[in-house]
Design brief:
Chain lengths: ~250, ~300
């Protein structure tokens, strides 16, 4: 099967800083893949490259068989790539419903404002925010804002969903709820790339992990294998721990 | 019920506006014409400043450009209506071209850049003496009808323009374009990521903020019969609409209209009572109003409804 998203030797530099260097990997349709790595590894830069916020300094990005690097964010989002932000980005003075309707109206191409609002209600019900539909987005709690981000992304009717640390700042019960939502989405056949710090989350839902360190892809494979990879252990915990953990089986 | 009340109020206001030039004297008609012109400027600014949230100071540039385009066409024998339509089209085109470049800037940078446009156009108008008459100004052909008939004619032209601007604003605010502009105003990067073609939408808003102003400039030129660069490219044409919108309340169409009416009333009252220090008193009044009512006069109604 041809991949839904494919990065070919993608690099991005900011001045002298190499944020990403020669990264290649692919996502098959329907896959749930975790992208992990220590702080500053280049995870969010990778998301920004895929969504068109930045252009790669080298390499190509293909989505659904077409090259998307160099396209503008609104063009890429209309082709079916949605993201949630690590730091939530609601429209603060719009209602929760209007926030979600914006995604349905502009990316999913709803016929008008009313049709977009109707679609938005379904997505709000899915994430459990139906009760707050008419509240201004600025009044939501952090956990609810994260749900709002998710509902907005889903309203865009994406084929690929990039979840950039949706679980950061949530308590264990809230994380459990979020995991439930992600599993439901996966069961619907959505392709998901989860950018995470929390190993518990990626171990629970991902079929494959990709590990970034200092902008380079250092490991890729099944979650159980990847966490025992000495290079990964070294990246997270330092070389002393890597020596103690021993070589990968 | 509220909808019916609003409809009745609108019908009443329209009837009053239609009857005014036959009830009032020439001074009242003149004042009302200026009020309608202010409405056009304020509602137009609301497209880019109120909906998209871009603090444009380009209104004077559009006004002056429209005035000169209309005046030049009319002095060379074009019929008035053709000159006005042409001025509106030219101003819209100019704004679209300008917007593609200027709207890459945000916040204060955009404000300063848009402020400069009127200054540049004024210098051009000053030096292109063959076309504009330079500092000598341009005389426009006078309508061969009575003084009162003239006053009424221009009043109704300005009324039509104001109604067109209000209708366009109402339409835009309710539809996809208005929704996208509000998204841009609140978080442009997020809007872009949600599929809003931000460059196109901002340029459309900027063009809409110019087209009626260009027409108003051309009608103004014909109305006062004589224009010069310092008059029509006056920076106050950029500042006043912003004050009016802030005064009335940004975001809706009622706010700019209310702001324009109240601003003109204040201007007239203060001008009469404080001949020597009118500018200072008007400034203080505006500062006080904006401090006491940061959301504009419309929030008074909202507050009462909540109480």
């Amino acid at each position: 099967m041809s991949p839904l998203l494919e990065l070919r030797c993608v690099s991005r530099a900011f001045g002298g800083l190499r944020a990403l260097h020669d990264v290649s990997f692919a996502l098959a349709p329907g896959e749930i893949v975790g992208l992990i790595g220590p702080n500053g590894a280049g995870k969010t830069t990778l998301v920004n490259l895929v969504t068109g916020v930045y252009r790669p300094t080298a390499g190509e990005i293909h989505f659904a068989g077409r090259r998307i690097d160099g396209r503008r964010p609104w063009q890429i989002s209309r082709r079916g790539v949605a993201r949630t932000f690590q730091i939530v980005q609601p429209f603060p003075r719009m209602t929760v419903l209007e926030n979600v309707a914006a995604g349905a109206l502009f990316a999913a191409g709803a016929r008008g404002v009313e049709a977009a609002k109707a679609a938005a209600r379904e997505h709000l019900a899915f994430v459990g925010l139906a009760g707050q539909a008419e509240a201004p987005a600025a009044t939501l709690t952090l956990a609810d804002r994260k749900r709002l981000e998710l509902a907005k992304s889903l309203a865009m009717r994406p084929r690929l969903l990039l979840l950039d640390e949706v679980n950061a700042g949530l308590n264990p019960a809230e994380i459990e709820q979020a995991l439930g939502l992600i599993r439901t989405l996966a069961a619907r056949g959505l392709t998901i790339l989860i950018i995470e710090h929390l190993m518990r989350v990626v171990m629970a839902v991902c079929s494959r992990l990709v590990v970034l360190h200092h902008g380079e892809l250092i490991a890729e494979g099944r979650p159980g294998d990847v966490v025992r990879d000495p290079r990964v252990v070294e990246a997270y915990l330092g070389s002393r721990w890597a020596a103690r953990a021993g070589p990968a089986p | 019920m509220r909808r019916a009340l609003g409809g009745a109020a609108a019908a009443l206001a329209l009837a009053a506006l239609a009857a005014l030039p036959f009830a009032g004297g020439n001074y009242a008609i003149r004042l009302a014409t200026i009020m309608l012109m202010y409405c056009v400027l304020a509602v137009s600014w609301s497209f880019i400043g109120g909906l998209a949230g871009y603090p444009s100071f380009a209104t004077a540039a559009f006004f002056g450009l429209g005035a000169y385009a209309g005046a030049i066409a009319q002095t060379r024998g074009a019929p008035a209506w053709a000159a006005w339509l042409g001025a509106a089209a030219l101003t819209a085109l100019f704004a679209a071209g300008l917007g593609v470049t200027l709207l890459r800037l945000r916040g204060h940078y955009f404000a300063i850049a848009s402020l400069v446009v009127a200054e540049v156009l004024r210098e051009i108008a000053n030096s292109a003496t063959g076309l504009t008459g330079g500092g000598m100004g341009l005389n426009l052909p006078i309508l061969r009808i009575g003084v009162t008939a003239q006053a009424r004619f221009y009043y109704f032209v300005m009324l039509a323009l104001a109604l067109a601007a209000v209708a366009a604003h109402g339409l835009v605010a309710r539809h996809r374009l208005g929704f996208g502009l509000r998204s841009i105003q609140q978080n442009e990067d997020a809007a872009n990521m949600l599929g809003v073609n931000t460059t196109l939408y901002k340029t459309l808003a900027f063009t809409l903020s110019a087209v009626f102003v260009g027409a108003a400039g051309a009608v103004y030129a014909a109305w006062v019969n004589y224009i010069e660069p310092a008059d029509v490219f006056d920076v106050l044409y950029s500042v006043k609409p912003i004050v009016m919108v802030l005064l009335g309340g940004a975001g809706s169409v009622l706010g700019p209209v209310l702001g324009a009416v109240v601003f003109l009333a204040l201007e007239e009252l203060v001008w009469r009572k404080f001949l020597t220090i009118h500018a200072g008193v008007l400034g203080l009044l505006i500062v006080a109003l904006i401090y006491l009512l940061p959301g504009g006069l419309l929030t008074l109604r909202a507050r009462r409804l909540r109480a």
